[in-house]
Each structure stands twice: as C-alpha cells, then as structure tokens.
Design a protein that fits this description.
With 280 residues, this protein is mainly α. It has 2 domains: 136 residues, no CATH class; 84 residues. The protein contains 9 helices and no strands. The chain is rod-shaped. The C terminus is likely disordered.
C-alpha cells in the first residue's frame, strides 16, 4: 500500500502537459498495434473499407486531442470528435480500434472533471450518441451487436463520467480545505501576535510599577542619609551604601524584566542597563 501511495505521489508530481503527451503517445501505440496486428487478421472487414492509412491519421488526430485536453479542452474535444465523425462517414475500421474507445473514455472523464454539471451532462450525452452512431455504422455486426453496445457503452461512459465528477468534487474540497487551513494559519498568527502584545503590555506595567517602587525606596533612603549627614552620624556611610545597593538591585531587576521583552537581534536593553549600572 505504501509503495502504491509513493507511485501515485510520483505520478501527481509529473507536469500535466508531460503526462497528457505520454498518454497520447501510449494511446497511439496501442492503436497502431491493434489496427496493424489484430484487426487486419480478423474476418470482420468484409463490408467496410480497411484503409489503414486513413485509420492511422484519425487515431493520430484523436491522440493529439488527448495531448491538449487540459490546456485547451474545446480544441481537444473537436479534434477527437472530428476523428469519430469522419470514421462514421467514411465507414473506416478505425471505429473497431481499442484506442478509439480509450479516447472516448478519456474525453468523457475530462469533460466531467473540468466542466460544470450542465456542460458535463451534455458532453456525456454527445459522446454516447457518437459511440452509438459508430456502432450503428458497423452494420455487419447486426442488431444484436448494436443492442449490446447500447448497454455496454452506457455503463462504461456512465461510470467514467461519475469518476470524473468525483475527482472534480475532491479537487474542490481540497481547494476549500487549503483555503480554510490558510485562514486558520493567519488567525493563529494574529492570535499569537495579540498574545505577544498583551504580554509585553503586562511586562511594561510590571516594569513601571517596579521603577516607581524602587525610586520611592531610594528617595526614602536618601532622606535618611541626608539626615544622618546633617547630624554627622556614623551611619551616614551605611545609608549611602544602601542607596547604591538599591540602585544596583533596581537596575538588575529592570534588566531581567526587559530581557523578557527582547524580540529582535542586537544588544538587549537589559545588557545596556546592567553595563551602565556597572560603570556607575
């Protein structure tokens, strides 16, 4: 299962034009083998013109339609349908080709995948009508073959059409999920930014209160030191040392708080404050 998932992932990474070109070449090679080996050896061409040159031209045109089916769907559809209509009109063995059926399946799938529902339904009905017209032109198979073709192609085209619609729906759901994921990511980034702003405001408030508290403490100690100096008290030096210690402690605490607010490169404000405090 893991190997299959890996193969699917590698296929999805192939550019669409490259994939469609490879598919067109594959259909062409299958048609060449089918027309040149199998059909030419069967006794089923007694009433039809087995014009291999014309058949190869028609299958090349149809394969060209597959190659451009995602870049220009209208042109691709016209090319592939021109091959079928021509085959019906000139009654060539091209209609017996497996490659012609592959082209029909691919075009039905592409129309169902890329187009709106009304266009997809109309395209499916047109494809089915062209297939039945081709089956009707194969008169040597008679009514039983036509009867079988009615149900066989109805089931085949119907299943392929629903598969194309399912892929279209899955792609739309994927796009919607990617859009919602992008919106959620933006919302998460916005909430993270708001949370950072709120935390910075809280830290700024705490820093403001810390500065006021420490300044008031230093003012109180300065008054006590001035009183001791006025009285020529022996404790004056201790009071001055207490002011210095309070100042250094205030700088250290403010530095720790500011460190929490540092967000960008460069010298943090706390380092500047501590350095200036150390030089004082």
């Amino acid at each position: 299962m893991a190997r299959f998932d890996s193969l699917e992932a590698r296929i999805q990474r192939v550019p669409a034009p490259v994939f469609d070109a490879a598919l067109a070449i594959g259909v062409f090679m299958v048609s060449v083998g089918d027309l040149s080996v199998w059909i030419s050896k069967q006794d089923i061409v007694d009433t039809r013109t087995h014009d291999n040159a014309l058949a190869y031209i028609l299958l090349a045109i149809a394969a060209g339609g597959i190659a451009i089916r995602r870049s220009n769907l209208p042109a691709a559809w016209l090319l592939s349908r021109a091959a079928v209509v021509t085959a019906v009109l000139v009654h060539t063995v091209y209609l017996e080709d497996i490659g012609a059926h592959i082209v029909i399946v691919v075009m039905v799938f592409t129309i169902a995948e890329q187009c709106t529902l009304p266009v997809a339904v109309a395209g499916m009905l047109v494809e089915y009508a062209l297939v039945i017209a081709g089956s009707w032109s194969e008169s040597d198979f008679g009514t039983p073959y036509l009867f079988v073709a009615l149900f066989y192609f109805a089931g085949l085209i119907g299943l392929v059409w629903f598969a194309g619609r399912a892929v279209r729906r899955r792609r739309r759901l994927t796009i919607e999920l990617e859009r919602q994921t992008a919106e959620l990511r933006k919302e998460q980034e916005r909430l993270n930014t708001e949370a950072v702003v709120a935390e910075r405001r809280r830290i700024a408030g705490e820093l403001h209160g810390l500065v006021i508290q420490e300044i008031e403490q230093m003012a109180l100690e300065a008054r006590m030191a001035r009183r001791d100096l006025a009285e020529d008290h022996a404790d004056a030096s201790e009071a001055i040392a207490a002011i210095e210690m309070t100042g250094r402690r205030s700088l250290e605490e403010m530095g720790r708080v500011l460190a929490l607010m540092d967000a960008g490169p460069g010298t943090p404000p706390s380092h500047v404050i501590l350095q200036s405090g150390g030089d004082a």
